[in-house]
Amino acid sequence: QFPRQCATVEALRSGMCCPDYFPVFGPGTDRCGVSTGRGRCVQVTVDLRPHGPQYMHDGRDDREQWPIRFFNQTCQCNGNFSGYNCGSCRPGWTGPTCSQQINIVRRNLLDLSAEERRRFVNALQQAKVTIHPDIVIATRRREEIFGPDGNTPQFENISIYNYFVWSHYYSVRKTFLGTGQQSFGGIDFSHEGPAFVTWHRYHLLQLERDMQNMLQDPSFGLPYWNFATGQNTCDICTDDLMGARSNFDVSLISQNSIFSQWRVICENIEDYETLGTICNSTEGGPIRRNPAGNVARPMVQRLPEPEDVAQCLEVGVFDTPPFYSNSTDSFRNTVEGYSDPSGKYDPAVRSLHNLAHLFLNGTGGQTHLSPNDPIFVLLHTFTDAVFDEWLRRYSADISTYPLENAPIGHNRQYNMVPFWPPVTNNEMFVTAPENLGYSYEVEWPARALRVTEMITIAIVTALVLVAIIFAAAACIVRVKKNKDDLHQPLLTDQYQHYSDDYDGIPAPSQSVV
Ligand SMILES: O=C(O)c1cc2cc(O)c(O)cc2[nH]1
Fold first, then answer.
1. Contact 390, 335 (CB under 8 A)
2. Measured from the CB, is residue 203 less than 6 Å from ligand 1?
3. ipTM greater than 0.90
C-alpha cells in the first residue's frame, strides 16, 4: 500500500509521499530522484466523475477517491522510470537507466521441467517468508491511523506474498459504518465491474516485479494454469506443484507439499466488520482446498471447457451497462464468470474465472481470502492471458470502458485501490507484449460452430449436393441419348431430313440406298 518512508506522522500530516531516491544532502533533498532527472513530486490526480448507484455511502470509506484520504502528493516519474521514488523501471524496461527492453514469458505451469517447477515453488515459498522491502500496510482506518496515543502510525511490515493477499482483501472489504451498524457489502474495487481485468492485471504485475527483485532475476515470469480443461480434477494439485490432497483430511494439502505449511491471513472477517479493524499480517489457519468437493453445488464440481474460452473470446464488446455483475453481452462479465460463455447474463451461471474459484471449494473460493491459496496466482495469469488475447483481437478497443457511472473504483480513470503510486485502470488496458513487457505462451482453442452456422452449412451442402446430382443426372441422360442416337438405324426420318437439309435440295421421295 504505502512506502515505509511515508508511514510517519509527518508524512501523513503533510499528505506528501515523495521519498528520496538518493538522499545526497540529507532527507528530503532528492525527492523522486529529482537531482538526476528521474522524476518530481506532484499533486495526486483523482478523477471526480460520478460512480454508479451501487454505493451510496459517500464520505464513509477511505478508499473513495483513492488515495487522497491518505496522501495528495506523489512522485511523477520521467521516461521509463517508475516506482514510489522513481527508483525502478516501467514494466517492460530494465537496466540502470531503464533503457533496455525486456520480454517476460508466462508459460503453462504443466510445461515447466521438474527443475523449473521446483524453482517456482521455492520462489513462492521465499516470497511467503520475505518481508516486503519497500511497502507497509495500514492496520487501521484513516480515522484511527495515528493510534491510541495519536502519535503511533498504525502500519505493519508484511511479507511479499502476504502483501499480495492483503491488497486483494483491502480491495474487497466491506465499508465500516460504525459500531453496532452492519458493514456495507455492496462495494468491491476489484470485482463485478470493468476494473476486474485491469485491477487483477496490475496485482499480478506487482507480485511478479516484487519476486523478480527478491530473486534478483529480471526475467522471472509467473506461470499460468489453464483451468479450462473441462475436467473435474485439479491437474496442478500435485506435490511438485500446488500440492496434492492430504490423505488425512480431504480439505487439506498433502504434507509432502510446502503449501501444507502455509498459514492464511485476513480470516477474522467478523472482527473487521464489527469492530472496524483491518486485516493485518497475523497468520492463522492452513489453506483449505477440496477441488470438485462441493456436493451442495454440483454446478461447481467441474472446470470450464476449452470451448468456453473460445466462445468468450467471440464477445467483441468490452463491457455493457450497468457495467456490473449483471451485464449481458459483456466480454468482462463473461471472462469474470457471471455470464454464460457466450455472453448471456444468467444469475444462476458461474463460468470461467468464477467457476475456477468455486471449484477449489475452500480458501480459494472466498474473495477476502482467495489469494492465500497460491493457485490464485495461476488462475489469474490465465484469466489475464484471455484478457490479453481479447485486447489483441479487438485492437484494445476501449470505447465501451465507461468513464463514469461504473461501480465505485471501476471508472476508466480511477486509481486502483490500494496500489501505490497511483495507477489508473486505463493504464492496464493495453496489449501486454507491446506495452507491459510480457507475453503468454499459449494456444487458443478454435471455436466450435454455432447451431445456426451448422444449419446454414448443412443447407448449403445439401443444395450443392442436389445441384451436383441434377447436373450428373442431366449428363447421364445426355450421354445415354447420344449413345442411343449412335445405335439408331441409319435410315430414319431425321437422318433423311438432315441429309436433305445438307443438300439444300428437297427430295421427299428419294432413297439413299
Ligand atoms: O461466487 C463467486 O462467483 C465467486 C467467488 C469468488 C472468489 C474469489 O476469490 C474471487 O476473486 C471471485 C469469486 N467469485
1. yes
2. no
3. yes
Maximum Cα interatomic distance, the chain, rounded to a whole number of Å: 138
pTM, 2 dp: 0.89
Looking at residue 363, its amino acid is: T
Comparing CA positions, the residue from 63, 24, 59, 18 lying closest to residue 41 is 18
Taking only the tens place, the pLDDT of each residue in 186-212 is 999 999 999 999 999 999 999 999 999
Three-point CA angle 107, 112, 116, nearest 5° = 110
Tell me how far the alpha carbon of residue 364 lies from the centroid of ligand 1, in angstroms: 8
User: Which is it for strands 438-440 and 104-106: parallel, antiparallel or unpaired?
Assistant: parallel
Q: Are the beta carbons of 361 and 368 closer than 8 angstroms? A: no
Q: Pull the grid cell for residue 74.
A: 506523489
> Ligand 1 pocket, 354 CB below 6 A?
yes
Cell 523522486, residue?
32
- Bridge partners, 42 (sequence order): 74
Cα(371)–Cα(95) distance, integer angstroms: 31
- Give, in order, the Cα–Cα distances in Å from 2 to each of 84, 171, 288, 354: 8, 15, 30, 30
Nearest residue (by CA) to ligand 1, atom 2, is 354
Note the pLDDT tens digit of each residue in 411-459: 999 999 999 999 999 999 999 999 999 999 999 998 766 656 666 667 7
- Judge whether 176 and 278 are in contact, CB under 8 Å: no
* Closest ligand 1 atom number to CA of residue 338: 3
Distance 358 CA to ligand 1 centre (A): 7
Give how far Cα 420 sits from Cα of 283, 403, 416, Å.
24, 21, 9
Per DSSP, the residues of 450-500 read PHHHHHHHHHHHHHHHHHHHHHHHHHHHHHHHHHHHHHS-S--HHHHHHHH
Q: Do 21 and 85 touch, CB atoms closer than 8 A?
A: yes
Stated as kind and residue range, the H or E segment containing 383 is helix 375-393
d(CA 75, CA 211): 23
Q: Does residue 357's CB lie within 6 angstroms of at least one atom of ligand 1? A: yes
Verify whether ligand 1 is closer than 6 Å to residue 223 (CB atom). no
C-alpha cell at 219: 526475467
Any bridge partners for residue 279, and if so which? none
